[in-house]
Amino acid sequence: MQPYRIFIGYDPREAVAYHACVQSIIDWCKEPGKLQFTPVRGQRRDGSNDFIYARFLVPHLCGFSGRALFLDGDMIVRADVRELFDLPMLYRGVRVVKHDYKTKHLVKYLGNKNEDYPRKNWSSVVMWDCGFFPHRILTPEFVAKSSGSYLHRFEWLKDDQIGDLPAEWNHLTMEYEPNPAAKLYHYTVGTPCFHEFRIQEGADEWYSTYRRLIAPIDHGR
Questions:
Q1: In sequence order, what are the residues at sequence separation of 6 or more whose Cβ sits closer than 8 angstroms to the Cβ of residue 157?
Q2: Helices 203-214 and 15-28, axial angle in degrees (round to 10)
Q3: How far is CA 8 from CA 21, 36, 38, 102, 217, in A?
Q4: pTM exceeding 0.90
Q5: Which of 82, 100, 105, 124 could cross-link to 72 by cystine, CB 3.0-4.6 Å?
Q6: Does residue 97 belong to any structural domain of this protein?
């Protein structure tokens, strides 16, 4: 049985977001026994988050073999992740949602700058073909010395080696128009766990997921 290997960014400043993301995946998965979660955390280079560069070590962590999914932690899913694992890679090294937008918010959670740059948020949901040969360059040493722009734009790959994911698998709340059919809410400006972002598209679903996460176990008492 091939597991669904899922790497999720973990930021201790919003640890609850990681756990809510995991809970949502379990809730929707028809084969939860195949789920294999790994929190991703690395050395912080800037004011963003700990896992911003560590995500590019997923192929290395998987022994450059098989497939794996990376997700930022500030998300909940609304469909079965099997849909992503069932997509053919078609000789692509990765599949991503190819966002093309300018942010509506210059400041995001915890006062961090929210700057525009090419291919912004492409790397926030990544289906990896870990065995794709060009990924062999992604060693810890190489990732440590590479620039953020090089990594987040997938510049070690040719453009035709970067495949697409359906847009509903990385819907940016507070940036895009509401989409009730979204299969993944990405709270990219700020997760509802932060007071100032508690009211936004998908906030009710985030809190519902959170409540299931912390609900006490009923021992029949």
A1: 93, 94, 134
A2: 90
A3: 8, 11, 6, 25, 25
A4: yes
A5: 124
A6: yes
What residues are paired with 38 via a beta bridge?
A: 7
Give the range of the structural domain holding residue 14, as residue numbers without chain letter: 4-214
Q: Over its length of 221 residues, how does the chain's per-residue pLDDT go in tens digits?
A: 789 999 999 988 899 999 999 999 999 999 999 999 999 985 454 544 445 789 999 999 999 999 999 999 999 999 999 999 999 999 999 999 999 999 999 999 999 999 999 999 999 999 999 999 999 999 999 999 999 999 999 999 999 999 999 999 999 999 999 999 999 999 999 999 999 999 999 999 999 999 999 987 554 44
Domain with residue 185: its CATH number is 3.90.550.10
Q: Is residue 196 part of a domain?
A: yes
The one-letter amino acid code at 199 reads I
Element (H, E) at 7: strand 4-9
- The reply to whether 31 falls in a domain is yes
Would residue 139 count as lying in a domain? yes
**In the block, residue with structure tokens 């525009």:** 116
H helices within the chain, ranges in order?
15-28, 58-61, 82-85, 140-145, 148-152, 203-214
